[in-house]
Amino acid sequence: MAPSIQEHIVVIKEVVQDTPQVRLLRVSRPAGWDFLCGQFFMVSLVDDPHTRVARAYSAASSPLEEGYIEIGFDKVGVLTTRLFGLKAGDALRFKGPYGKFFFDNPSKEDIVLIGAGTGITPLMSIARYCVEKSLPNAVRLLYSVRTPEAIVYRKELEERKRQNPHFDYSVTVTRPEESAERWHGKTGRVDEKMLAELVANPDNSVAFICGPKEFVFSVIGMLERIGVGKERIKTDVWG
Q1: For the chain, which domains are there?
Q2: What is the pTM of this model?
Q3: What is the pLDDT of residue 52?
Q4: What is the Cα–Cα distance from 104 to 135, expressed in whole angstroms?
């Protein structure tokens, strides 16, 4: 049964500047407010006459984390600009959860996560859940960013990999020449070769893709060409 939609005023517990562009907010989680990995909340300011818009933000935290709900965002519009100005103790309005892009079936299938930019947030919810539950499934993440400095959750990804031998990840940097850091990993846009390396068992994998429309549709086509059935591909399109 899908979790019920609720609306709450929540309090910011912690603000984390994870990359130069991306900020994470951890807000109080009311008791009994359930959600599934990958679902999102509509977020808005409280009693602000100038900014009445609400925007969808995926939960990056695991549903097993009872202490807070975490969202991540970069400064791309009116609401996110205001969110960047908030601090611990400030209040926000959350409504949800929403969305059919979710993981809730710990079957024996391999779990393939493919994201770009801040599209990693719902994928982190899935990865965190799988690691915390010690699921035996192979969980593999492929993450595309412009520069190494833009890798959200960089330290945590490495920690999660050490925590659970079933979890692995790789990052591809599309514009390494724009970085002051010398990058030794994958470069370029996600391509069919990268996906073939990522998906060890096309007939026994379920894929979750999150990112901009062009990115998501491109990855869908490549996954199908390497043998992942359309019914095994779940998508969350941003923008």
Answers
A1: 6-98 (2.40.30.10), 110-238 (3.40.50.80)
A2: 0.94
A3: 77
A4: 12
